[in-house]
Fold this sequence. Notes:
Layout: H1 27-44, H2 49-55, E1 57-68, E2 76-85, H3 98-101, E3 124-129, H4 143-159, E4 168-174, E5 183-190, E6 198-207, E7 210-222
Antiparallel strand pairs: 1-2, 1-4, 3-5, 4-7, 5-6, 6-7
Amino acid sequence: xxxxxxxxxxxxxxxxxxxxxxxxxxxxxxxxxxxxxxxxxxxxxxxxxxxxxxxxxxxxxxxxxxxxxxxxxxxxxxxxxxxxxxxxxxxxxxxxxxxxxxxxxxxxxxxxxxxxxxxxxxxxxxxxxxxxxxxxxxxxxxxxxxxxxxxxxxxxxxxxxxxxxxxxxxxxxxxxxxxxxxxxxxxxxxxxxxxxxxxxxxxxxxxxxxxxxxxxxxxxxxxxxxxx
Length: 228
C-alpha cells in the first residue's frame, strides 16, 4: 500500500481564451483547473477514470468556495465532493481504499453551504437554456458553468466593479444537476445592506408540467467580509 498523499501539484498556463478583456483569468477557468487537478490527483494514486467506471462510481461536486485574494496566492478553492452510483445517481459509500490513500485536509473540513435568502421582487432575472458544450462526461452541466452564469447575471445588475474586487469570495451550493436542454431562470440581487458588496443568486429549472426545481444557490462577497 502506498503512503498517503494529501496533495498533488499540477502546473497550468492560462490560455488566451480563458482570460477576459482585462487579461485576467476568469474564475470559471480556475474552477476547471481545480476539478482537473482533483482528477489528476486521484489518477496518480491509482484511481483513474477506468477504476471508477469498473465500479460504477463517480464524484460530483456538492458545493464549493472560491476565494480570490490579494498577494501572490491567486486563488483558494475548497470543494465538497460526493461519490455517487452512476446507474442510480444516489450517494454511494466512499471506497474502503480511500482513507488509507488520502489524508484528511489540514484543520478538518466544514461542508460548504449557502444560507437560503428570500428573493426580492426587484431581483434581476435572466433565462438560460443548457447547451451541449456545457455538459461534462456525466451528462450534467459542469460545475464551473454555473459560476459563469452567476457572473453574467451580476454584471448587468450593477455588480461589474464587485466582479473585479480583490479579494472576493464565491460560494456555490449545487442542489440538483441540470441536463441538456433544460430551461433555467437565474435570479440575482444585491444582498445585505444594498451597498453592492454582496450578491446572491438562485437558479431554478423550469418545466411545463411541474413546479420549478431549485438547482443552485450562490453568493459573492467582494472586498472581504462575512461569508453568506
